[in-house]
């Protein structure tokens, strides 16, 4: 059964699959806001990394009927996920520099 949260998450399921889909949607919304048809969407540059995130999600949180890896392997998979998310952040920041008004720090975010 999916986890339920209070506050901002009260009206929706918070599952690993749903969170990955939300991440993908948020990236596409930030990278492809104008829908410029002369250029391929910038979000295409994120697709290889998003595919890695999807694959790791399936390893850590397998579909019904599939078996999760044993704890030592899960730790290796978690480390791979952390590395992939770091790469994803770097690529996203680089791509956001190409979107007018969407610089990663334009919303007061500092890192």
Describe the structure.
The structure is a single chain. With 111 residues, this protein is mostly helical. It has a domain at 16-21 and 41-98. 50% of the residues lie in helices and 0% in strands. Helix 1 packs antiparallel against helix 2 (47-60) and helix 2 packs antiparallel against helix 3. The model has no long low-confidence stretch (mean pLDDT 81).
Measured on Cα atoms, how large is the radius of gyration? 16 Å
What letter string, H or E per element, gives the SSE order? HHH
* Largest pleated sheet: none
In the predicted model, the low-confidence regions spanning at least 5 consecutive residues are none
Q: Please work out how many helical segments DSSP would assign.
A: 3
Count of β-strands: 0
Provide the fold topology.
Blueprint: H1 16-31, H2 47-60, H3 71-96
Helix pairs in contact: 1-2, 2-3
Characteristic terms for this protein:
single chain, 111 residues, mainly alpha, 3 helices, 50% helix, 0% strand, elongated
Concise summary:
By secondary structure, this protein is an all-alpha fold. It has 3 helices and no strands. The protein has a domain at 16-21 and 41-98.
